[in-house]
Specification:
The complex is a heterodimer of chains A (140) and B (126). Helices cover 73% and strands 0% of the residues of chain A. With 140 residues, chain A is mostly helical. Chain B has a single domain (6-123), classed as Up-down Bundle (3 helical TM bundles of succinate and fumarate reductases), CATH 1.20.1300.10. Classes of the chains: A mainly alpha (140), B mainly alpha (126).
């Protein structure tokens, strides 16, 4: 932990700030915290745009949908789709972890680490399950 | 910075006493997203195909269109709250922060409106 004299100063404020990124040691729960933020923003800007493309294409007509479908079912589309599916499930799993921690539970260090590690197992399992079914049953 | 003072509140600096509402709405939409996105992924996975006729026929049913509309509102509001915190944490210049949050609001509301319109157009027979 930093002492008051070595606390980082951000912006013009002279007020003391809580210890920031460069102070913390990287651990699974640290990585899970920043992963939650990265996955959230990735969906807000990447996932949302692709979701809009899919929905607006479906509302526009068969030709517009055919363009989306050909890109989405090409190898690039499938790789992006698998990536976004993992991003969704990872944000979902660590989001559930946040909701649990909001109640005051699982804040103790070992519980926090175990729960953080579990989010990756959950997100990977759900991604594999989802895409196994898609690739085996949708004729892509 | 005017933290918590009357003039600070007038200028929009420091505590505006709206943090708890923001925090709580983030949690409410998180729980809604959990249910709605699990439904969404499960629904797409269970469709016989993901081509145009299948997807449009699926979205014409009220049992699909209504949850989709709820999903759009909940997801777009949730990411609008989340990205706002992201901006506030990393942009410290008041002017660029204001512009970034303005752009975020237009993106979230505009994107949400387009998505809602698309679902309604399909549901009412595009």
């Amino acid at each position: 932990m930093a002492t008051a004299t070595t606390r980082p100063r951000v912006g013009q404020s002279a007020r003391p700030l809580s210890p920031h990124l460069s102070i913390w040691k990287w651990r699974v729960h640290t990585i899970t915290s920043i992963t939650h933020r990265i996955t959230g923003n990735a969906m807000a800007f990447g996932g949302v745009v692709l979701f809009l493309w899919w929905l607006v294409a479906a509302a526009t007509g068969p030709e517009a949908y055919a363009l989306f479908y050909s890109v989405a079912t090409g190898w690039v589309g499938v790789v992006v789709g698998i990536g976004l599916t993992w991003v969704l499930f990872q944000h979902m799993a660590s989001g559930v972890r946040h909701l649990v921690m909001d109640t005051g539970a699982a804040l103790e260090i070992n519980a926090s680490k175990t729960f953080a590690t579990a989010t990756y197992f959950v997100s990977l399992a759900l991604t594999l399950l989802t895409w196994a079914v898609i690739l085996l049953t949708k004729g892509i | 910075m005017g933290t918590g003072t009357e003039i600070g509140r007038v200028r929009g600096l420091g505590s505006a006493k709206s943090g708890v509402g923001h925090w709580w709405h983030q949690r409410v939409t998180a729980v809604a997203n959990l249910a709605l996105l699990l439904w969404f992924v499960a629904s797409l996975v269970r469709l016989p195909a993901l081509d145009y006729p299948t997807v449009v026929l699926w979205l014409r049913q009220p049992v699909a269109a209504i949850p989709m509309l709820l999903l759009i509102v909940s997801v777009f509001y949730h990411f609008r709250l989340g990205v706002q915190v992201f901006i506030e944490d990393y942009l410290h210049h008041e002017g660029s922060k204001l512009l970034a949050i303005l752009a975020l609001n237009f993106y979230a509301v505009g994107g949400g409106a387009a998505a809602v319109f698309a679902v309604l157009k399909i549901a009412f027979g595009a």
